[in-house]
């Protein structure tokens, strides 16, 4: 299998290095050939090529079976007047590879449940899969700004078409069929025309092909509340790009350990893109203390979803869980206690 | 002073009735003349006039000193194919009266801190004032839908102009000056052009006229996380209409008691609109068990902000606090324990 690693910026290279060791170990143990290449994306690509996603990086990704990304961005590339920004690389790779469905599982680890900001009786048993639309909506709609009556006006369009909604709802509904058969669609249909199309389309898809599911719709503001007050009531949650950005980040706080959450971005066919959901953490970059577990779990997701190596994925996930159960912690989840460095944590998993 | 009450739908009439008693009591005790009239908005106005905000309701509001709203909406008016909806009345009154700044204080009551879904060490000491832009952004931008290549496309425009951003940032910055002198502006400037205008404009306002404030900017997805993990780090938070809708609702869960949170919507001059932030709760409407405290606190906010009756507002707020400290609870905050009805709770406050 062809795998592309895109370490990116900040702690990216350190954490991807640990995931790479795990992938190589799995390959040798299970007799697979992983042909691993590395590319540049984000700030490091701006530095090297003046482009956060040069064709040199994109081309091998197009032909890959799976892509593992670290993180992009940092203060060095934060100048609002800069010609381009690291995030542009991220948005472009999603669009170019047609990665329209972003899957984010939110499931607390028993060993870390005390780290949740939520009370135990609320967080216990939570198991949500967010499916966020990733290549449409206001992220990719037209934008303009102009001068009018001596002031500036700026606008972005939030646009969805039937087919864009249908395909991501299908991904979510199929996932729900393999889980607790409960699908929730989130919109703002009481205010937005685009949400009314979302609601109607989602309902049609579910009625037609997924009538075995329990299905409900929730407004985005209400969902922001329910996610804190009764997160156990949800199974699969599907929503648009912007609402998904906000709600998945809110949801990522629930387990109390951002450093453990992976995500997968999938298209119709072609490679999937896998990454930890945390950022590039420039403040701790190069110190060897970043938590590699989310990236290792992202590698496991890659084996599962893009290479269909279920047993191998299970093995990695079990290793992470047992490392946590054994009490091993990186600084971010040590709650002030004893902690391991990035490489040591990677070794524990190996 | 001219006051207009708009009880609305569901539990609206029951809770506004209790607030009205409190207002009348305050008037007689402190020797004020409150000329109180009542109007219809939302579903009940659709039933009576086929319009969720008829001119008959709007006209007295224009000439009022303050407006107290209950809540609008309910399953009866939920048909997606209906000609109009209760929420349209709410959006229209905001726009018609130029109520561009929505103020939502988030401050837990000591007596109810155990009801918070967040752990005590996180929620204790939280005191946030959200200032949400209320008459612009995607709520009021152009919207369209059309057929294209055999499918439907729908779009909403998120638009802001310099002056709209400036005036709401000013309201927030002034509020911060009377509080802990810390202002946070929330946007999505790494993706949206309209957010880049927001960020630039907000920074200019603060630099020019509010250099005494500590000022920072946070992305909306990050804010959705911080609000749960470290809410104590914020004082005044200003943001656009849609982000404010989501974040204030998320924030409203923090104190663990939705039934206690009021909000104020203010314009440049003219009357302010005051309301509880909870909805019309059709499931418990007419049962006499709704919590009237948020509406009573909204009435206190009206006295403070629109009538400049500070002492009177203080008195109402102190009464609510002492009623809670004495252990009185309506069903929503009783945690299964003994509870009072709507009228009984109103009497306790009186
Ligand atoms: C970096 C940013 C453009 C990106 C987004 O908003 O999609 C990030 O927040 C994410 O969720 O992956
Ligand atoms: C009812 C709805 C239109 C409204 C909004 O989205 O503004 C409500 O959620 C609010 O926050 O007041």
TrEMBL record, chains A, B:
Reactions mediated catalytically: (2R,3S)-3-isopropylmalate + NAD(+) = 4-methyl-2-oxopentanoate + CO2 + NADH
Single GO biological process annotation from the record: L-leucine biosynthetic process
Binding site residues for substrate: 94, 104, 132, 221
Q: Which InterPro entries match?
A: IsoCit/isopropylmalate_DH_CS, IsoPropMal-DH-like_dom, Isopropylmalate_DH
Cofactor(s) recorded in Swiss-Prot or TrEMBL: Mn(2+); Mg(2+)
Its localization reads: Cytoplasm
A GO-annotated cellular component: cytosol
Ranges for the Isopropylmalate dehydrogenase-like domain? 2-349
The record, for Pfam families, names: Iso_dh
The cofactor remark states:
Binds 1 Mg(2+) or Mn(2+) ion per subunit.
- Which residues does the annotation say bind NAD(+)? 74-87, 279-291
Give the metabolic or biological pathway: Amino-acid biosynthesis; L-leucine biosynthesis; L-leucine from 3-methyl-2-oxobutanoate: step 3/4
PROSITE patterns, from UniProt?
IDH_IMDH
- The UniProt record lists the EC number as 1.1.1.85
- The feature of type site (Important for catalysis) is located at 139, 188
Q: Which PANTHER family match?
A: 3-ISOPROPYLMALATE DEHYDROGENASE
Q: How does this chain assemble?
A: Homodimer.
What HAMAP family would the database entry show? Answer: LeuB_type1
Outline what the protein does: Catalyzes the oxidation of 3-carboxy-2-hydroxy-4-methylpentanoate (3-isopropylmalate) to 3-carboxy-4-methyl-2-oxopentanoate. The product decarboxylates to 4-methyl-2 oxopentanoate.
Which family is it part of? Belongs to the isocitrate and isopropylmalate dehydrogenases family. LeuB type 1 subfamily.
Name of the protein: 3-isopropylmalate dehydrogenase
Organism in which the protein naturally occurs:
Rubinisphaera italica
